[in-house]
Amino acid sequence: MSRPPESAPRRIAILGNPNAGKSTLFNALTGLRQKVANYPGVTVEKKTGFCDLPNGRRAEVIDLPGSYSLQPASPDEMVVRDVLLGLQSDTPPPDLIIFVVDATNLDRHLYLALQVIELGRPLILALNMMDAADVQGLHIDIAALERQLGVPVIGISAAKGTGLDVLRDLMTRDVEPSLRHFREWPSHLQRVIERLEQRVPRLPTVPDRARRDVAVAMLLDQGEDDALAQHVSADALADAHLLARRLDEFSPGWRSGDVAGRYEAITALVAEAVNAPAGDRKDARREAIDRVLTHRIFGPIIFVVLMGAVFQSVFAWAQPLMDLIDWGMRAVGNGIGSAMPEGPLRSLVVDGIIAGVGTTLTFVPQIAILFLFLSVLEDSGYMARAAFIMDRVMSRVGLSGRSFIPLLSSFACAIPGIMATRSIDSRRDRFTTIMIAPFMSCSARLPVYALLIGAFVPNRWVGFVTLPGITLFAMYFLGIVAAVVVAWALKRTVLAGGLPLYVMELPPYRMPAWRSVFITVRERSLLFTRNAGTVILAITVVLWFLASYPKGGEAVRALEAERTQVAATGDTTQLRALDNRIASAALEHSFAGRTGRLIEPAIEPLGFDWRIGIGLITSLAAREVMVSTMATVFNLGSADTDVQPLRKILREAVDSRTGKLAYSPLTGISLMVFYVLACQCMSTLAVVRRETNSWRWPIAMLVMMNALAWLASFAVYQGGRMLGYGA
Amino acid sequence: MKRRVRAPQMGCTLDQLAAGERAVIDSVDCPPVIARRLMELGVLPGTEVEVIRRAPLGDPMEIALRGVHLSLRKSEARHIDVTPS
Asked: Which CATH number fits domain A10-170: 3.40.605.10, 3.40.50.720, 2.40.40.20, 3.40.50.300?
């Protein structure tokens, strides 16, 4: 083993099964010195951090995604395999691996451990949750494990912090790789693998012992293995596929031929090293909790109540914080505004940049609160039970129970909802969930629904409910129907295929490690602010420009002249009315106003005129901006967005060309349907871009949703008119 | 999927077991990639498995083997042949 130069930090990877407590150990070792990025080309997150070692050197620690096997079944596991084999171009293989296992469940966690030990890289086996093992009366013979595995073994509790000093000390040592092998292939398979091994290119990052694993990967390849295609010649890969097909014929079952052998080795190992108390090793506490939480009747009730509480908290707790941020940003804007001379620069800073930063920050409370709940639910083990309960329902649209909570969160805001899809293992399910999340009516649509229902839907009782109530429900329901249809279509076309494998581990219940919960909340909030925030800021500035320029125009100049005269009289009521008319005329003259007129022919069939067109354009910043835009367009001060007068104005607005009423109730319904289905929120697109690591998906979302919205509104408006509703 | 005809004493498939019943796995009969993953998770021939419960809506089911609890859909459990014990 060649020593890295003293100046370079040691590169240490933390690895293990999901639920081994890997991330808790990572957080305990690195604290807040972490950064998150994506592995190139995939949507897998790369978490790295720094840790000071007792010898004064620094270690760069990588938290590899949780995996079950080196034969990957998901993009996460693919990255892990590539890093460990030395095939991941941006991440050189680690100098040392800390393999974390759950000490109470060596039987299963050792499977991947044995695979990784066989690679011949320096490795320390960390038996985590030793405290829980003690409570269960498990006695683990660490010396026996070291002897059998050929690697250093250490007992720790990452959550309690015990054993970490010894671990840090071990991290400074040079660890000799193990020479053990724990599997045997039948001789005919052995020959095939050895033959393929000759075809594996000699790479400096792949140790000799790992070349065999590259050969096995070639043999098991399904033609979707990018790293193999990149490093191994197409010829060799084609030969491997041919050999695999021949083996399929003559030796069915060969693909899992090595699994049983490894488990036999584990059984022998555990029998020697672990002394369990006699009798049934059933976890009584787990059983008691599960009997309630997954009960046929109480289970779903508790689930609904819990989800209701989470949903309500995101809504209710976030609101005061959002108002506070809003107020704070306005105070900052006023402060800076009064310090700067009036002019375009001040307008840019106050109405463009500060407003953009404000928009970004107002999302943070929702994201922070949602991830506080989600990480507590995930770490405690409840999330897997929620997925267990909801799986049947979600399977109807080709998804799994894991998609339910991100979709539910999207009713508050699609942004934290889309960020929450990270817990979905299957890439295809995750992308489907992302694509349908914005159909859930978010809280920003509510002010628009409220305005339009108030303006156009008569407040009449129909049986037990009111007409406005039914309308509001219908809008939420329409979003859900659209989501179901789109999910169904996506899973049958572009996102079809993949492994139809929904097996999922139901981990034991555990107390969440609060430090880890806090780090997750902080990390998600920062990630959003940094990545999506810049896009949101840019979009706000562009929209500010469109709504402010070009300045002037004849109508504005005439009104400003009038204002000079009125100002002399000191009539403040008339002055305010004039100011509102100036704002309206200026908006009409701006690029946004012109675009409203420009798109009028496209939206006229939906029953919208150019004034609504302006509202649609400014909605790109955030949907609720529609309300204040309409107030400005109709000469109401945009500052006082009291909806009462605006409702009346919308109802009585006149089309200047025909002299008739501009909007009918049918227009209102058509516009609401448009808001349900259209992709207007640029912030959502910024988050989709980050979460899918490509521009393809946000662009597809924009086109698909807006086409759907246009068609649906067209059908509503034109259909309604044919039926005689469009008075 | 092909339904194989079999003498009754030879056992049944995992999805046919009721909560609380135990069995020994005989074979895993799904496409090779899925079979491999199930085996890697411990669903191996010769392993004893216990059905813990079914989800409130009847599917999926919770099973325990080698000290691990797994959630398995009926469509997956159908391909696992077992002998009740």
From this structure: 3.40.50.300
